[in-house]
Design goal:
Elements (H helix, E strand, L loop, with lengths): L1 E2 L21 H21 L5 E5 L15 E4 L17 E7 L18 E6 L2 E2 L2 H11 L3 E8 H10 L4 E8 L10 H7 L3 E3 L2 H21 L13 E7 L8 E7 L3 H5 L4
Parallel strand pairs: 1-2, 1-4, 2-3, 4-7, 7-8
Antiparallel strand pairs: 5-6, 5-10, 8-9, 10-11
Helix pairs in contact: 1-5
The structure holds zinc ion.
The site of zinc ion (ZN) has 4 residues, from loops.
């Protein structure tokens, strides 16, 4: 289970919630961990025998003491960052607390890795963190079956991998792509949202996770893959950061997607 902090119900903004200096950072970690526990409940009800939770938020997003004791907890540093501690031993992948990709209108705290990324394309397909990790999983035979986060994220996931079970826990209210913003400006742009009650969000996550795994066990073909094929080419457009101007990074790899994603120079 991939986890992130910005797509959690009740996590209201970036600076006060998603970084250790923020006043509500510990509360944000608690809210994420309770959403993760709800998903674990659902997966276990559907027959899951082993679950590992990957702490994917940069500064950490899980309160391990609150985490359901049936799950393992994975936290780096690790080589990469891709594929973020995944390996071929897993059958399926799920996302909890995920946000939409950079440039998505009405998406709460949207970004792709960092707020400095304007757009990230692989073989001409614009993707966010969901797409990047799902592609990594696919190269190892892992299928993504569930994702929870804000409404724009849920729409992004369904468009990329039709059939994936999604749960929307909040809806961003700031229109516009923000493509004109610097990295700093974009970090401040999408902090507005309409949230449901966090307990309601957990009920939906529990039910959605159970439904996802039951359906996967019965009809795995109802979950589509992105289906990216080699050779691979990535085009990453960056915003201006302070005095540094915007630029574009283009890299190619004949056969290995994960190697390509880990290439930054
Ligand atoms: Zn993220």
């Amino acid at each position: 289970m991939m986890t992130d902090l910005e797509g959690v119900c009740g996590v209201l903004g970036f600076d006060q919630w998603a970084v250790p200096e923020g006043r509500y950072y510990d509360e944000a970690k608690r809210l994420l961990t309770l959403e993760v526990n709800a998903a674990i409940e659902g997966f276990c009800a559907a027959g899951a025998t082993e679950i590992d939770v990957i702490d994917g938020h940069g500064h950490g997003g899980i309160n391990q003491l609150l985490l359901d004791r049936r799950a393992g907890y994975l936290r780096g540093p690790w080589p990469g960052p891709y594929p973020l501690m995944m390996d071929e031993s897993y059958d399926v992948m799920a996302f909890v607390g995920q946000h939409a990709k950079a440039g998505t209108p009405c998406a709460h705290m949207a970004h792709t890795g960092m707020f400095s990324v304007l757009d990230y394309e692989v073989n001409g397909l614009s993707v966010g963190e969901y797409g990047l990790y799902t592609m990594c999983g696919e190269t190892m035979g892992i299928r993504t079956i569930f994702g929870s986060g804000d409404e724009a994220f849920a729409q992004e996931a369904q468009a990329l991998t039709p059939g994936v079970e999604t749960v929307s826990v909040k809806r961003g209210i700031n229109p516009g792509s923000g493509d004109e913003c610097s990295a700093e400006g974009y970090r401040q742009k999408n902090n507005g949202a309409r949230h449901m009650h966090p307990e309601r969000a957990r009920e939906l996550i529990r039910a959605g996770a159970e439904q996802a795994l039951r359906r996967f066990a019965e009809a795995p073909e109802t979950f589509a893959a992105i289906g990216m094929r080699p050779p691979y080419r990535k085009v990453v457009k960056y915003r201006s950061v302070g005095a540094n101007p915007a630029y574009t990074l283009i890299r190619e790899n004949e056969r290995c997607l994960i190697e390509l994603l880990n290439t930054y120079t």
